Automatic annotation (TrEMBL), chain A:
Heterodimer of SAE1A or SAE1B and SAE2. The complex binds SUMO proteins via SAE2. It is found in: Nucleus. Transmembrane segments: none annotated. InterPro entries: ThiF/MoeB/HesA, ThiF_NAD_FAD-bd, Ubiquitin-activating_enz. It comes from Durio zibethinus (Durian). The lineage of its organism: Eukaryota, Viridiplantae, Streptophyta, Embryophyta, Tracheophyta. SUPFAM superfamilies: Activating enzymes of the ubiquitin-like proteins. GO terms for cellular component: cytoplasm; SUMO activating enzyme complex. This is Ubiquitin-like 1-activating enzyme E1A.
Automatic annotation (TrEMBL), chain B:
ATP binds at N8, L9, N10, R11, K24, D69, N70, L71, D72, A73, R74. This is SUMO-activating enzyme subunit. Heterodimer. Zn(2+) binds at C110, C113, C386, C389. It comes from Durio zibethinus (Durian). The keyword Transferase does not apply. Gene3D superfamilies: Ubiquitin activating enzymes (Uba3). Chain: B, domain 2 (1.10.10.520), Ubiquitin-activating enzyme E1, inactive adenylation domain, subdomain 1 (3.50.50.80), Ubiquitin-like 2 activating enzyme e1b. Chain: B, domain 3 (3.10.290.20). Residues 570-583 have a biased composition (Basic and acidic residues). Residues 584-599 have a biased composition (Acidic residues). Residues 543-607 are annotated as: Disordered. Belongs to the ubiquitin-activating E1 family. Pathway: Protein modification; protein sumoylation. The gene is LOC111282630.
Amino acid sequence: MDGEELTEQETALYDRQIRVWGADAQRRLSKSHILVYGMKGTVAEFCKNIVLAGVGSVTLVDDRVVAEEALSANFLILPDKNQYQGKTLAEVCCDSLKEFNHMVHVSVEKGDISTFGVEFFEKFDTVVISCCSLAKKKLINQKCRKLSKRVAFYTVDCRGSCGEIFVDLQDYKYSKKKLEETIECQLEYPSFEEAISVPWRALPRRVSKLYFAMRVIELFEDVEDRNPGETSIADLPGILKLRKELCETNSLSESQVPDALLERLLIGTREFPPVCAIIGGILGQEVIKAISGKGDPLKNFFFFDAMDGKGLIEDISEPNTGSQAALINDDM
Amino acid sequence: MDTIEVSNLNRQFLFRQSHVGQSKAKVARDAVLRFRSNISITPYHVNVKDSRFNVEFFKEFDVVLNGLDNLDARRHVNRLCLAADVPLVESGTTGFLGQVTVHLKGKTECYECQPKPAPKTYPVCTITSTPSKFVHCVVWAKDLLFAKLFGDKNQENDLNVRSSDAANSLEHSEDVFECRKDEDIEQYGRRIYDHVFGHNIKMALSNEETWKNLNKPRPIYSKDVLPEKLTKENGDMEKGCTTDDISAMASLGLKNPQDLWSLAENSRVFLEALRLFFLKRVKEIGNLTFDKDDQLAVEFVTAAANIRASSFGIPSHSLFEAKGIAGNIVHAVATTNAVIAGLIVIEAIKVLIKDSNNYRMTYCLEHPSKKLLLMPVEPYEPNKSCYVCSETPLSLEVNIHSSKLRDFVEKIVKAKLGMNFPLIMQGASILYEVGEDLEEDMVAIYAANLEKALSELPSPVTSGTVLTVEDLQQEFSCSINIKHREEFDEEKEPDGMLLSGWVEAPVDKDNNKPIRNSESTSNALPAEEILDGEKDVEIQEIPEGTETVTGKKRKLSEVSEGTSTNHSGLSDENRSHNQLEKLDVDDEDDELIISDDWESLTKKKRL
């Protein structure tokens, strides 16, 4: 049974977190393989967290060459041109991440992720993507869902002082202790495409406005064939026009997608480091929960806005997916 | 003042394995300069309570961010920030929980406006005679047995307090713990074992009164648990002694710290650990204090606690668990700390740009409350009864004839009021003070005063006297009205003094027993005191002392959306944060944070 037990080194290093989630969970973490795409500041924070936690391996994909603006929010890239010149974001981040925990295998995968076949994704337990177009998100999500093995899928994006996380654990079963009993729980997650297809008028009245705002900008980028994050305040008129159309189609008042919020998201294309830390922290915890099977995973969107300071969970799914019922107000 | 330990590395990511043993402040500084070389960072590898960090020092800063791991240091910094009128951003985490709070003098509550739970203490008799929980056994093993065997011999120790024949047993007990000339280490070990687990229990059983309503413990003797001589079983006596990693577990082939040991295994560990201390670390004996990073000490305490637990029918625990209890270890993960760190920076930026309308307290929850994992709350106004920031006088009921000044200083001024270098005055007379530049004759007078009853001081204290207590470093001053009272309940008021106006944290529900400060029984400081606060990048919550918010006393403001566009039809004036009062906003667009959730919140946070 020696192969099963944590080594002395692991016990010493992970002592404080084993006291949180237990040795079994730690063992499961050490066997897990994570794929990460899109190495911006938030994802850098996330990677740092899971490497420190002691996952089995982390594979990074991002062939973009390091540019100076990456330094503003990605602390894995040291401001030494000699070090990063000519290298890709994945390569530089990989080198830095390795230093945090020698027991974690960190590597780089090159190439266009949309061309990777389904069998590539089978190697992983968890896939996290950022800086992705709507089309790519759907594509990768689908590839994960096609596998017989359950691969957890997450998207994460930060714009300015706001952040969004999406979680798809497909059919997720886990157990937890309530008082003295162990109860079995089951959650059914929609895919990204299914989730965002839920008609807006069918959603609970007080769904975060950030959800709608992100969808508008996401769709705009898709329609205008822009790279993710490549929108600016100059696009505001086009964005507002699209918002109008979407709201009309969905019978939603435009006040649910405020001008001010859209402006902020367009102006603040750069990530804001403390928000990266917060989103990267929440995402890290979610991934750890799902791998270890301990703790209620969030379903299925998380939003944070530094302006009001709220970090909230929204369940964007069809009401009859069998888990938490959507709250539908009488006066709708 | 902290140095880097291996167990820090799972979350304190500015540090690497190669930095273990080095100063946290210095290494953190170097690490940060690597990615932002243009910041001026000055590390101080010093205790935050050091006298050089006075009010003048604090005034140099625009904001203070705390990353402390004990209540005492936090209170100290709180007072300095108040005195210097510098904004303070406080924070803490424990596992998945965390919070960030902002404190501005006069505008918001100070850190001490709301009661903070004090570190847990237990009644002496529970520890010495009637343990009912494993933690009681751990405290016994650590603060009594370990201290008695390996600590300062001159220190008072309650280990043999409850014996039927007090006078004789005192004589007897002096001999018991000293190794006799003719006995080898194993014989000595077994004799100690039999004394504390056998004889002492047997003696306690003879007092029928104690056990009327409790389960009786059973005495345990080594010959019944380990009939054969250990040397035969161990085989290679030198095993486990090769490196500086002297360990009973290694010596006995016990590999997994998460395993539960049988009574026999615990007994072997007990005897082996004791043997190794005397064989390999004899020079330290007489000077040792328990240190959670001392493997052999942890093994000994675990084994001793488990044997005692076995005697009293209490379930045993693994070394891993016992270490956590004995060492007051706070469980911690990188992710919660990252979230809290991000929130701290957001608040700090607001302070620096003077965005005073938007300061908030933020709570990071483990389970969402009304969809919220991160819950922002408007800061409260200062508590008008806070004796720290509102200078409200306190009252003390005390028997002025039987209580000495020393009791007052130790139990009230230092322990409860958190003053480190107190000055006590009655009117214009100084009854007591601490300082480096005091004249010798004054020092002598103060020393003498400590031993006098309050009513017999040079400036006698009577009912109605007002004492002024100050800590010059904290620039914190407080008045206490003295009221004489003859009788005090030994159980409920073991200190013989009752302080009121000082807001005390609510008592834990399953520990309704009266609390007496167990520090009087041993010199052992709780582990967290040893790692005393240096401004650490890492943020730790005090053990078992997660922040408690008593929602009943304070009004909670609703959180209004910070967006500039206002669809609610209310004017901006009504929604102004400046009011810091509960607003009756009937706005469908706003989320309401409802105060009756607060109780469930606090219950969840008490792990």
